[in-house]
Amino acid sequence: MDHPEIKLSPYAADLTISNNLTRSKDRFEPLNAPYVGLYVCGPTVYSNVHLGNVRTFLTFDVIYRYLCQLGYQIRYVRNITDVGHLIGDTDEGEDKIGAKARLENLEPMEIVQRYTNDFQDVMRVFNILPPSIEPTATGHIIEQIEMIEQIMSNGFAYEANGSIYFDVRKFSEKHDYGALSGRKIDDLRNATRELDGQSEKRDPLDFALWKKAGATHLMHWPSPWSVGFPGWHLECSVMSTRYLGKQFDIHGGGMDLKFPHHECEIAQNIGAYGGELPVRYWIHGNMLTVNGRKMSKSEGNGFTPEELISGNHKLLERGYSPMTVRFFMLQGHYAGTLDFSNAALQAAEKGLQRLMAAWAKIENLPTTDTGAVDIAGLRDRCYAAMNDDFNTPVLIATLYDGVKWINNAADGRLQITAEQKSSLSELFRTFAGDVMGLKFEVDTSENVDNRSDGLMALICELRASAKADKNWAMADEIRDQLAAIGVQIKDGKDGASWEFD
Known about the structure:
3 domains; 14% strand; alpha/beta; globular; 15 strands; four-stranded parallel beta sheet; Rossmann fold; Four Helix Bundle (Hemerythrin (Met), subunit A)
């Protein structure tokens, strides 16, 4: 279908994506160009966001930004999981949100709202754009029941004591369960414990579509089979197809979701609707490590954004600004692991200062009638970097060539024309700003006082958001921890101010 009113960039034809479904780098060909459907698995909102989450959502923020830059019209769906995600990611145990609500003696939806607000606040701090649609699992219970009925009607699910399970053995007779993760059904069965007679499942690989709620389960709804709640995997199948269609372009998430979550999504979609594979391109962001070890709460090396900005963590030498963290993450390719350390953050901080200082200089560069820079060639190389599977490390290295030109022109060692100056400004605005999402936080000079002002403004903003959400414990914690390092927060009628002791 032609859409003459929407013009794609000529660079759009060269975009290639490492597709985890095909295990190859495939040319990007949307189903209905220039429109693109993008679905990303969002957070389970039972705790504060940690930096591993931030990296995942930053990855897809850059992908979203770049597709927009190429001229595509994107419908970006990123869900909120507010029911069905059980402790341990299994079909047994208590709902993570219900468990937190019980611990804090709150309604589950109070937990959901608190941590949804926290998630969205953190996304804003790191300049991660909101999606087109941010649906919730609890907002689509009816659609989930309808999809279960369709799967059962097609013979791929069964009832057991009021719960509904997907029949992996039946599905595997005609379809490849394991196509995305590369796992073989026989190997999976050999690696899974045999049923002990206590499980309702016919096969240990079967997974829940609907679970009958126990007497103490806080979150439950009526269904044709029981009062219960939907399985964790089901919500993404429902919400992605509800807003993007039965087949769409890109599905993303963290590497840890490839199996079983995304594998189960594929099975559910085919089980309900048949036909072709539901998603054309599967993209997974890799994990963040800390000093070579996986970031996790059990390791004690997981940072919250507040801790990172304030520096209030045993593994941090000092605080770092959100744009420093964003730039640090962009220095690694999304598909590779990225090791988080003070040395790496401090190097990123210097690199960001150099880039942003050069960008700020462009406006005042002297110009001449003749110039000796190839802006068109630099632009081609920037697009080539992003077209090669969104390679932000190569893009940054390419922009540093422009930094050299800017610094040399500012020092009178290089001549540029007014037209080249304008093109250079546009190039930095496009790739450093629009695509990589970097923004000026503070003065780009080395002035420490200016950087402190900008950093404290961000911390005060985070505290104000906590107070607005009535998260008094978080607001008081920020105030008390700053006091412990010699910074006094003062609340006034016009907002908060600060000063050193």
